[in-house]
Amino acid sequence: MGKIGETTLEINLSALAHNYRFLRSKIAPNTKFLAVVKAFAYGSDMVAVAQKMEGLGVDYFAVAYAREGILLREAGIAKPILVLHPLPINFEEIIDHHLEPNIYSPKILKEFIQVAKAKKLTQYPVHLKFNTGLNRLGFWENDVDFIFEQVKDTPEVKVTSLFSHLAASEDSNEKTFSENQINTFKKIAEALSQKLGHRPMRHMLNTSGVLNYPEAQFEMVRSGIGLYGYGNHKTIDAQLRPVATLKTIISQIHRIEPNETVGYNRAFKSDGYRITATLPLGHADGIGRQYGNGNAHVLIHGKKAPIIGNVCMDMIMVDVTNIDCKEGDEVLVFGQQKSAEEFASGAKTISYEILTALSQRIKRVIVED
């Protein structure tokens, strides 16, 4: 029998610490570091990751939605938590749990100020996001005067930071675009800071930004995917360590005769005598149908076993014709030996997607070297 006995996601906190120290080495000692732990810490374990990162000395956390931040507070996380996509229905909860909202539009600014006044807050920290080219969330450059008029006589809130987001920081072909974004953000931050009479923190760099545009680190940087072991470039990936390792086992082995089919819709048809192994994970676990029909493979005893046929809800079948294996043997889906980026690339997607898609029904195991 294999060592694990079931589908398991190992979360290596030593790898997390290694990645943090690597990224920290790329910025100035006095630059603050914000760890992005949204989406269950990129599919791993948000609480375990945040607790480790807090112990390592990160300055800020970021989540996507209020509920994620509340879970961190309930787990005892004390560091500031930025909510990147707050919704008005959650404003009171955000305040009650001392979370810090990203204010990204005139409507959101007005509504948050209204709640802040109703709750008689004083200098409550808010972060203002500006759209410099990603065109997703954020104020425009010409909103500076409007923002100032809203906050100048509003002691209930205090602008703690100004930030933006690079659209293509990993793409060297978009260097000019990225530099234009940085320059636009500098201009916006200077104009608003002069009006406010104080200088909020500025932050713009994501993982690839930290590595490619360190001159724009300002007072703080944000890192998500890099902390989990992926740097959007092979040379960087080689210096990082994947935090998540997805393992499973062989449930059953079948011997397939020529012209037999495997799986739903008979998507795989054997061209000869084949041996297949059935594994206990499927699209309900985050292994989408796009990985089937030879688009991805797993490793069994270090050898590639391609996924054949359509991915089922709870099972996948792999070709083990040329692999000496038996029922109960351990299977590596991705991890240190074979990265999530490599697994994802066959289906023309990225590590972010496969990691964050991992179902919460997969058993999580926290490990340290």
Written overview of the protein:
The protein has 2 domains: 31-228, TIM Barrel; 244-367, Lyase, Ornithine Decarboxylase, Chain A, domain 1. The strands form 4 sheets. The chain has an 8-stranded parallel sheet. Strands 11-14-17-16-15 form a 5-stranded antiparallel sheet, with no helix packed on it. Helix 1 crosses helix 3 (46-56). The protein is α/β, with parallel strands linked by helices and 369 residues long. It contains 12 helices and 19 strands. The chain starts with 7 loop residues before the first strand and ends with a strand. A hairpin with a 7-residue loop joins strand 16 (303-308) and strand 17. Helices cover 30% and strands 23% of the residues.
- Strands ordered across the widest β-sheet: 8-7-6-5-4-3-2-9
| Count of discrete structural domains | 2
Largest sheet: 8 strands, parallel
Q: What do the pLDDT scores average to?
A: 97
Q: What distance lies between the first and last C-alpha atoms, to the nearest angstrom?
A: 24 Å
Instruction: Outline the low-pLDDT stretches.
Output: none
Our estimate of the beta-strand percent is 15-25%
Question: What's the total number of strands?
Answer: 19
Q: Assign the CATH superfamily of the largest domain.
A: Alanine racemase
Shape: elongated
Instruction: Please tell me how large the radius of gyration is.
Output: 24 Å
Task: Report the CATH architecture of the largest domain.
Answer: Alpha-Beta Barrel
Task: Give the fraction of residues assigned to helices.
Answer: 25-40%
Q: What is the CATH C-level name of the largest domain?
A: Alpha Beta
| Structural class category | alpha/beta
